[in-house]
Amino acid sequence: MQTETRVRAINCRHFINGQFVDSQNQKTFENINPATEEVLGTVAEGGKEEVDYAVAAARRALNGSWKKTTLQERSKILRRIGDLILERQEELAHLESLDTGKPFALANSIDVPRAAYNFHFYADYIISVGTDAYQQDQQALHYSYRRPVGVVGIIKPWNLPLLLLTWKLAPCLGMGNTAVIKPAEWTPMTATVLMEICKEAGVPDGVVNLVHGFGPNSAGGAISEHPDIDAISFIGEPGTGSSIMKSAADSLKKLSYELGGKNPNIIFADSDLDEVIETTLKSSFINQGEVCLCGSRIYVERPIYDEFISRFAERTKELKVGHPLSENTNVGALVSKEHYDNVNKYIEIARNDGGTIVTGGKRPEGFEKGYYLEPTIITDLDRNSRCVREEIFGPVVTVTPFDMEEEVIMQANDTHYGLSATIWTSDLKRAHRVAHQIEAGIIWVNTWFLRDLRTPFGGMKHSGIGRTGGMHSLDFYSEISNITIKL
Ligand code: NAD
């Protein structure tokens, strides 16, 4: 049964210097509902002029009202933002579901509560951490003095729009910076509502600014090359990261990157198969597989390979693909036509490469409109197939058998990516041994997606630059001077 849509989609305008505004040239683009292909509303299309205006407001606020706030005051504001997100939880979850095509239930149970927690976590964290100090015998005392890095550009992807924006914005504001945000063009709504929330929570005008638009030659490009932006926090594809790096080079901006993943899920024969299958269902297909941490390359030790395939396929077929607002939906719609076509292209590649589509690989019956795809399991692919090597970012996984530990480590590392990995085994020594050899920034043993926001999060190789979480985020959003006092 489809839940009643109590929340209406909104038209999205820029938020600059505390006001919602249109583009100077009045340009807009349409926001499409991926579940129905209908127009949800319009979005202001910003460019260089709007970014210039937003950066000027952010610079004034940085050196004005925001600079005068104390840590306690900023902590209180962050807490209030988190509270207001929870007060508007259902509305935000609806908007997120309409924009992305993800199940409402998922947005309501994970995306929005976690967005609130990002603010609550940093509200506590910023007032609990101290500063480094080193006493050098009787000669000197050295200590670290932190100040904001300045005006920060935050450029966001579409898969977890509010969750990821708040993950960056909370520590950014907590450290006393100001921000110019560009949400992904396909998912502009929750970021727009967040601006209302920031204002209501007492964030002074100009501290948080939002410019809608596209990437190159649009708002994203204007942020990347703006000479008065000091740092960029980017989440998205490695190719986009590379373009931003080139644009940012002239003004030597500080960069934090969280990029894509093609994450191995390694299952040894001694693992608890019931738990493996239930968790692997999530790590493969949650959010339509549109999560950077999804374990899209599954490697199974040969003695349990056949049993795994048959039980995993059986459970996958039970997942309900459906309208994002329907109560029982497990897998919603992919975010856009462009992305849907791209994911389907990989299924075609798998077929041409001799792969076996164990289940899925097609549009579910009964859906004439919307970007729906059945959860798809593919086997029998060579490790050089593009399906095994490239990030598909949809409900599509490949499964490959292995015989030796060294062999699976080599295959797991045989990629440019290095974001996350999961290892399933009941052998503790093996868990450590394999984890230490896998080239990934986040490694789970006998679990997946379990996060503690104090721990370092990020990827190696083409999956990212730097780490976020706890002190790691505060380090990015601050400049540190070492001060040496002769004793
Ligand atoms: P994308 O790189 O296409 O776009 C991300 C953002 O960058 C969008 O706002 C876009 O408008 C903007 N952009 C595009 N080109 C630009 C340019 N030249 N200059 C400035 N801005 C530009 O990524 P996407 O398709 O929105 O997101 C999916 C990708 O994000 C996947 O690769 C996924 O793995 C990755 N991701 C990573 C993490 C992580 O934590 N590592 C989290 C979520 C998503």
- Which ligands occur here? nicotinamide-adenine-dinucleotide
Q: Low-confidence parts, pLDDT < 50 over ≥5 residues?
A: none
Let me know the average pLDDT. Answer: 97
Helical percent range?
Answer: 25-40%
SS-derived structural category: alpha/beta
Q: Characterize the largest beta sheet: strand count, sense, and whether it forms a barrel.
A: 7 strands, mixed
Write out the strand line-up for the largest beta sheet, numbering strands in chain order.
Answer: 14-15-16-13-12-17-18
Instruction: Give the N-to-C terminal Cα separation.
Output: 73 Å
Number of helices: 15
Strand content: 15-25%
How many β-strands, per DSSP?
A: 20
Shape: globular
Q: What Rg do the Cα atoms give?
A: 23 Å
List strands and helices in order, with pairings.
Layout: E1 14-16, E2 19-21, E3 28-32, E4 39-44, H1 48-63, H2 71-87, H3 89-100, H4 104-128, E5 133-136, E6 140-148, E7 151-155, H5 161-174, E8 178-182, H6 189-201, E9 208-210, H7 219-225, E10 231-235, H8 238-249, E11 254-258, E12 264-267, H9 273-285, E13 297-301, H10 305-318, H11 337-352, E14 356-359, E15 376-379, H12 386-389, E16 396-402, H13 405-413, E17 420-424, H14 428-437, E18 442-445, E19 464-465, H15 470-476, E20 478-486
Helix pairs in contact: 1-7, 2-4, 2-6, 3-4, 4-5, 9-10
The protein binds nicotinamide-adenine-dinucleotide.
The site of nicotinamide-adenine-dinucleotide has 31 residues, from α7 and α8.
